[in-house]
Amino acid sequence: MAEVVQPAIQAAKDERLKKEGLGARLMKRPELGAIAGVILVTTFFLITADSAMFTLSGIMNFMTPAAQLGILAIGAAMLMIGGEFDLSIGSMVAFAGLIFGAATVTLGLPLIFAIPLTMIVAAMIGAVNGSIVLRTGLPSFIVTLAFLFVLRGASLVGLKIASGGSTQLRGVRDAVEGDWLAPLFSGDAFGPLFVWLAEAGVIETFNNGAPKVPGIPVEILWFAFLALVATYVLLRTPAGNWIFAAGGDSNAASNSGVPVRKVKVSLFMLTAMCGALVAIITVMDSGSTDARRGFMKEFEAIIAAVIGGCLLTGGYGSAIGAFFGAIIFGMVTIGLTYTDFDQDWFQIFLGGMLLIAVLFNNFIRKRVTGER
Amino acid sequence: MTQDSKFHHGDVSTDAKPIIEMIDIEKHFGNIIALAGVSFDVKPGECHCLLGDNGAGKSTFIKTMSGVHKPTHGTITIDGKPMNFSSPRDAMEAGIATVFQDLAMIPLMSVTRNFFMGREPTIGRGPTKRMDVQKMNETVVEEMRKMGINLRGPDQAVGTLSGGERQTVAIARAVYFGARVLILDEPTSALGVRQTSNVLATIDRVRKQGVGVVFISHNVRHALAVGDRFTVLNRGKTLGTAKRGEITPEALQDLMAGGQELAQLEGSLEGTV
Ligand SMILES: Nc1ncnc2c1ncn2[C@@H]1O[C@H](COP(=O)(O)OP(=O)(O)OP(=O)(O)O)[C@@H](O)[C@H]1O
Ligand SMILES: [Mg+2]
Fold it and tell me: Coil, strand or helix: which one is B235?
């Protein structure tokens, strides 16, 4: 065999590579926009809001709704990175709430059965969603829009049957009272630690010496835990690579050996289960479930994911971004009550944030792909 | 260039058993007949060129071979056993790797992530099972260097690569994973002189290791440089298979263009094509 031109011995560094500053490297991270947003919103409320907002109880106050939305947003973000939407997650919260309520109150099941049952039903509906999308090739937008109505309607009808004519099912709190699994899904965690901190004078207390914040609401822990797991999966596991690939170009991914169908159906199931988790936590918290639960949450979750850097076209985004996107959401919703502004500014604020986030993400994507 | 190339060709004995055999493959897309009964086989250690005009059905054919399309009719056997690929993943598990004409790369993902897409090496077990990122990056840089391209960085997004660099990633990936059969659909269409010679040398190298290569090209010189057998497709059918040395470059070129027209053109272009 004749000589094959061998590349000359290369210098360790490519001379065509300009040194990239920390700033430029950060610019390429999808979650940058959301982190900048958190800083911006925090600054805004530090200036305009009552100082109570950033006390421990104030923080828990806005982190609780942020976490409830954030659990959905992380699911929605994973699904968006995988190239699909699920507009039915809000309705799924209501429907899973019904299943959970019926299981605990009507059937009297203990949580060890009621929770897996709710999760399995949700996962199955997610799988149906995903299978229809993949089998027909229709946009997931339209298929899940249908399920937005179907599940909301089913929740109404089902609630009337389960409660005998009302659209609210009460008595969940009594039904799960004393269940050994309950602390995992309701109330506050680390109670003794907070009591101890209160005694030590580190955190604020009521006059009777009890801490003002009795612990960390469990949804916040679930939220943080899911954000970490999702980030690990996306960045470090083969499954994460498959999710990015399936969303980036499902045809190319499939030709390269990625089981695209399996990946996408799993993501639909995961998103639905995130809805079910939020349903379980919020229903146990309020002690009842109703058909309006999760109303409009699908849009809020998608907005949080987009603020967090997810592209609507798929294949790009981050779970940590969605985490911060949801925190921005919680801060703005609750934060306005600490200011002199009219509450109704909220939606204007939100629309503005969304627009800025999309413009910013578009710019980032062009930088990453080299303006092509 | 004449038929004499710088490569030692695979001395494949005529009675060697083919690795993969495609018998009477038909592929219909609705009422379009893309393939109307094509038979083809690849033996270990040979480079079998698939030639033909635009739209002849070459890409469709290799896509049935790599599990992307299910043939409407016909059988695929591997080592004599009938196979039924239900996805490209199945074909890969059988040791078939493909460079598709459209490359099957994802612009938003890094070179490394693209390279190992679908076949990521892992370390750890159970819930700590994760991609071996360091090994992945090192392998990519190394494999690309072998093909004559020095990457700026393995974490660069494929969308920022030049067309030829992108093609080289796809080739390097297929060579790395092509344990038994390597299919290349016009792999050199965007490549520079040095990279083209590298690709041809690579075909020669893997052929020596006993891999069967399917090489699609519109360039007769490239085909003649490495090919052991030449099958010409025309309008979804085979015009025939020729062994190396049994056919002149001119005859092959005429066959590829479907006959007449090129001969006339050649006159006016004074033999430059
Ligand atoms: N998915 C499809 N649906 C309908 N027709 C198709 C499809 N794929 C290929 N064809 C048709 O089959 C024929 C063969 O296409 P193919 O891509 O295999 O050609 P080719 O030989 O690879 O050509 P080229 O040299 O231009 O790459 C074309 O006429 C094409 O229009
Ligand atoms: Mg082709």
Answer: coil
Asked whether the beta carbons of residue A248 and residue B106 sit closer than 8 angstroms, the reply is yes
Model pLDDT, residue B268: 53
Q: How confident is the model at residue A243 (pLDDT cuts 50, 70, 90)?
A: very high
pLDDT digits (tens, 9 = 90+) for B41-67: 999 999 999 998 888 999 999 999 999
The candidate with the shortest Cα–Cα distance to B202, out of B190, B188, B217, is: B188
The domain containing residue A348 runs over which residues? Answer: 34-369
Helix (H/G/I), strand (E/B), else coil: B266 = helix
Nearest ligand, measured from the Cα of B184: 2
pLDDT over 60 at B266, yes or no: no
3-class secondary-structure state, position A222: helix
Mutate to test the pocket of ligand 1, among B25, B38, B59 (most ligand atoms within 8 A of CB): B59
Residue closest by Cα to atom 29 of ligand 1: B55
B253, two tokens: 């070129």
Domain with B16 in it: 1-95+180-193+207-273
Pair B232, B246 in one domain: yes
For the stretch A247-263, pLDDT in tens is: 999 999 999 999 999 99
As for how many domains chain A has, the answer is 1
The CATH number assigned to the domain holding B67 equals 3.40.50.300
Angstrom distance (rounded) from CA A335 to CA A329: 10
pLDDT in tens, A351-371: 888 888 888 877 876 776 655
Residues B69 and B16 in one domain: yes
- Are residue B37 and residue B7 in the same domain, yes or no? yes
pLDDT of residue A68: 96
Phi-psi region at A314: left, alpha or beta (left = phi > 0; alpha = psi -120 to 50): left
Structural domain includes residue B40: yes
Contact residues on chain B for A17, CB-CB shorter than 8 A: 152-153
> In A152-163, which positions are buried (b, 16+ CB within 10 angstroms) versus exposed (e)?
bebbbebbeebb
Classify strands B181-185 and B212-216 as parallel, antiparallel or unpaired: parallel
A253 contact residues in B (CB cutoff 8 A): 104, 106, 117-118
